[in-house]
Amino acid sequence: MPLAELEINAADQQQEDARLAALISAGILDTPPEPAYDAITRLAAEYFQADSAAIAFADESRVWMKSCWRQMVRELPRKDSIFDMMLAQDGPVVVSDVTRHPQSDTLIPRLKLLGMASFACAPVHSAEGMILGILIIFHRKSRQNMSPDELLTLQSLAGMVSNQLELRTLRKSFNENRKGPRRAFHAAEIACKGWPSKSDLHQALEQKQFVLYYQPEIELATRRIIGLEALIRWVHPERGLVPPSEFIPPAEESGMILPIGDWVLAEACSQIQKWCVEDISHVSLRVGVNLSARQFSREGLADHVEALLVQAGISSRQLGLEMTESSLIPNIHTALGVLGSLRRLGVSLLMDDFGTGYSSLNNLHSFPFDVLKVDRSFVSRMSEGDQPLQIVRTIVELARVLGMSVVAEGIETIEQYRLLRQMGCRYGQGFLFARPMTVEAVSKLLRLPDRILPDPEAVELACA
Ligand code: C2E
Ligand code: MG
Ligand code: MG
Fold first, then answer.
1. CB 352 near ligand 1, within 6 Å
2. Residue closest by Cα to atom 38 of ligand 1
3. Is the pLDDT of residue 219 over 90?
4. At residue 35, does pLDDT exceed 90?
5. CA distances (Å), 267 to each of 136, 206, 373, in order?
6. Rounded to the nearest whole angstrom, what is the distance from the C-alpha of residue 401 to the centroid of ligand 1?
7. CA 177 to ligand 2 centroid distance, Å
8. I need a labelling partner for 226 at 20 to 30 A (CA). Which of 60, 78, 235, 274 fits?
9. Mean pLDDT, range 251-279, rounded to an integer
């Protein structure tokens, strides 16, 4: 064999060894069924109206199915597999008619076994970028080639499988070390800044230095204010207006988040009642309150919320509770119980900052969320190209399939506003429409006819 060829083979082998090592550390092979993966295959099948779909991982000799949708094969030999085609191509493979493919000799017998005539697949990567597995959809008939948008959607779905793999690792490290990376980060942050201490926070609460600002959430098509998000601020006598990023993490760490969170809930409920007294049509507004992880470890959260609703004389439909996925993960079972009771109470549950954490479809499936809030990091990158745009589109589509409504966070430009409307995203919030503002300022906006905000496009034209 020529030297150059030997060198290439050695490099390939090295790459394959690294891949197998990553596969072993993911601990995914021969594991019991997990609903998260089934949710992704089902979603991929529904989205592409496929006849069958699967997620598989490959070791040295076999392609092993982690999840199948309408397909019974559990394992196939790796040699001449579609997985190897994809690995060689280092990216997605689309074959719209197997009979016309150069490798039809090897492909046709296998696909005949499954009764399929065309397929498309995308790689599932490890955190280090190794191709560990494959997300594949099959059709019984030959099809037209996939559009670039469809291909990006398939890749985004395969990306969600990769997120699941990361989530497993995260769970493992949570179990091994109950002080997860997030908590460790907070502890380090406090140690280095040293402010505010527990007693600073205690004092601030006693001296009523916290205030709630409110940011409108609007229906994008009409610009009507449909809700408000309550966002805490600390009016510090020396430091001025302190944003939540500076005191919520230490409040979580010291446990002060519980009394502070109680104050936020009570304050928001009493403000909702005041707005309704001002104008009865405001009963249709939903005010969202952010909750921290610690607030979920309390069994009595739902009872507490119910007592506040009764005390303020407002309906549960007027309150929304926002939480991030990562705040639910450390104590998933308690969180599930608490969410169930809140849901029975009738309050809306909003998943905040979706896309930043592990975006687990399983969590979306099993947690009773009504609304998904797309994190502003995705919205802000939307105009940068096809891929970021497609990610938002996939999230919007995902929510639709799961029967949830979507709020896009952090809309700052007309272009983002336009793109979001085009892709069918119904709700949004962002500086383009209104910043978080004091009760007085937001009350003025609520007095606008039909609560409709001015059109930012018209404002821009007028100023041009
Ligand atoms: P969040 O719940 O995701 O809130 C949205 C954040 O995005 C707010 O920051 C808001 O001011 C900001 N934002 C909204 N539109 C735009 C935009 O167009 N551009 C940009 N650049 N930013 C925008 P804020 O008020 O600083 O709050 C940060 C985070 O602090 C919140 O993120 C939430 O996680 C937490 N937080 C706020 N209030 C509370 C609270 O009462 N309790 C708890 N536990 N956490 C809170
Ligand atoms: Mg929020
Ligand atoms: Mg958010």
1. yes
2. 231
3. yes
4. no
5. 50, 14, 23
6. 27
7. 28
8. 235
9. 96
Rounded to the nearest angstrom, the distance between the alpha carbon of 379 and the centre of ligand 3 is 11
Give pTM, 2 decimals. 0.75
Predicted confidence band at 187 (pLDDT cuts at 50, 70, 90)? Answer: very low
Ligand 1 geometric centre to CA of 231 (Å): 6
Nearest-CA residue for atom 41 of ligand 1? 232
* Per-residue pLDDT reduced to its tens digit, 351-403: 998 877 665 666 677 788 999 999 998 899 888 887 778 888 888 888 887 78
CA angle 441, 321, 318 (to 5 degrees): 60
Asked if 93 and 136 count as a contact pair (C-beta separation under 8 A), the reply is no
Secondary structure of the chain in HEC code, one letter for each residue: CCHHHHHHHHHHHHHHHHHHHHHHHHCCCCCCCCHHHHHHHHHHHHHHCCCEEEEEEECCCEEEEEEEECCCCCEEECCCCHHHHHHHHCCCEEECCHHHCCCHHHHHHHHHHHCCCEEEEEEEECCCCCEEEEEEEEECCCCCCCCHHHHHHHHHHHHHHHHHHHHHHHHHHHHHCCCCHHHHHHHHHHHHHCCCCHHHHHHHHHCCCEEEEEEEEEECCCCEEEEEEEEEEEEECCCEEECHHHHHHHHHHHCCHHHHHHHHHHHHHHHHHHHHHHCHHHHHCEEEEECCHHHHCCCCHHHHHHHHHHHHCCCHHHEEEEEEHHHHHHHHHHHHHHHHHHHHHCCEEEEEEECCCCCCHHHHHHCCCCEEEECHHHHHHHHHCHHHHHHHHHHHHHHHHCCCEEEECCCCCHHHHHHHHHCCCCEECCCCCCCCECHHHHHHHHCCHHHECCCHHHHHHHHC
Q: What pLDDT score was predicted for residue 463?
A: 61
Question: Two tokens at 268?
Answer: 């928001």
Report the range of poorest mean pLDDT among 86-100, 111-125, 184-198: 184-198
The reply to whether ligand 1 has any atom less than 6 angstroms from the CB of 196 is no
Q: What percent of the chain is modeled with pLDDT above 90? A: 55
Residue 179 pLDDT grade (very low, low, confident, very high; cuts 50, 70, 90): very low
pLDDT at 315: 96
Ligand 1 pocket, residue 68 CB under 6 Å: no
Cβ 410 under 6 angstroms from ligand 1: yes
